[in-house]
Amino acid sequence: MLLLVGAIALWLGLSDAALAYVRAALRLPLAASGLVLLVLGLVALLWRPAGEMASHGHGHGEDGPRSAWLLMLPVVVLLLVTPPALGAYAASRQAPGSDGGSVGDFPPLPEPVDGVVPLLVNDFVSRALYDRQRSLEGERVRLFGFVVPDKGGGQEYQLARFSLFCCAADAQAYTVVVRGDAVPRQADQWLLVEGRWLPEPVADKLAPSTKSPVLITDSVTTVGPPADPYEHGLYGF
Amino acid sequence: MLRLGGSATPAREVAPSASPPSETAPRRPRLFDARLLVLLAVVAVGSRGLVAQFFDSSAVQFWSTLFVSIVIQALPFLVLGVLVSGAIAALVPPGWLAGALPERDVLAVPAAGLAGAALPGCECASVPIAARLRASGVSPAAAFAFMLAAPAINPVVLVSTAVAFPGRPQMVAARFLASLVTSVVVGLIWSRVGREAWVTRAYSRLVQGESRWASFTETARQDFLQAGGWLVVGAMAAATLQVAVPRSLLDQLAGDPLLAALCLGVLAVALAICSEADAFVAASLRQFSLSALLVFLVVGPVVDVKLVAMQTGVFGRRFAARFAPLTFAVAVASALLVGRWLL
Question: Could you say which of A38, B6, B88, B191 would form a disulfide bridge with B105 (CB–CB 3.0 to 4.6 Å)?
Fold first, then answer.
């Protein structure tokens, strides 16, 4: 049992597969724990003749192995189903109008590349909603995210990306309403969208905003999904 | 004091009578394991199409992603916990830890609570360690205080709280204080009211004379198997709750202060977010007052579905049924009081 879980953990730690579920920083601990489990499993396998210890177990011999079968479940789900990274379904379940990030002043925008400033979706949303300096005004930005179709079936869609700090259970979607793209888009399609922010009054930092910011776009490119679908760095983490 | 014997005797009583007939039993589960695994693998590959169809629904995929994520995220910490637990079993002479703490609970419990600051990591690591502490003679109340404090007041959690609430250091202080108070109060209440009989499972003391390496690896392995299965149960419950409860529900409940606090407390239990990340989730819930958010932060690391499941697996259902509500009540009260004072 340990060998199986250990091997999977090691594989997850060494490959990109875990990035759909947890943040990249967890990969090394994951690989390390996989290695540890493999060692423990091998030791038990080779040294089993020390069977005395197994009977002492935890007072009730079956309890150890019996609940341990449950460990098969995530393995089975992971291997058979390969759950996808959080996408349009999860994003559409959240209330609109994502909350901004840090409460303090925003650092200056990154330098434009070829006249366009590439921004993380969470950064764009926070600035649009809360930046008193209105750093986005007049700037041409490029956002990278996936499509969340409009619930009403309208022409507009939302571009979203999840930010996560630990694992998918704490992920939050940051969404931007995209206007000006005439091409109908599929849910979960990854796009590079360039455009300008539609200026709106900036909300008070402490009062939640209930609307998503709007991006007026004139250039949309379809791309493949990234290795790491989640954003980080909203709080410098 | 009977304490030392109290936790070890039930396990020892069962073991001697179990060893003669189970001489051959340890061999059987081994073969049973391997053949069943092979069978399972064959069935799984064969039914891949069917299973994939069932999992095609978006909601089920969402659930699977959450479920797998929670398990993956918790795994390294669980491994860390069982390694420490194994090290305690193998390297620390029995009774030393109990001797290192003050004799009386009134002093031992707060000391153990403060000691929790030394263990960085999510809740999953603290459960096997607390069980091991108990088995090596530390008073149960002190062990539980440690178990509650460690996930909540370690440096990583405090730093992440500071980062998630910039310009509001009082949040960090409040979290530290309220969590420590919670762990100490629960520990003291347990030392008065708690009974050994409620803990129906216990880690046994390993036989003397085994090599330290063997005792370390075997302990760690057994602890992992026992706690790991229950972690899976907790992860399933948490994933189900996240799928079932839409986040937009929260907006409506934010109005009334007491209701908001309770609602966030319940949410903290349901979501089972690890303690390093819950500060960021809390910071995003801007419609709630800081006091209500404090309740969320204090309740989360000490009682949630993941923890309750693991406590059930490691200490028994009767224990969990009493311990969890007690912890919840104390955590909410402590957070509200500290919030009133500091925030």
Answer: B191
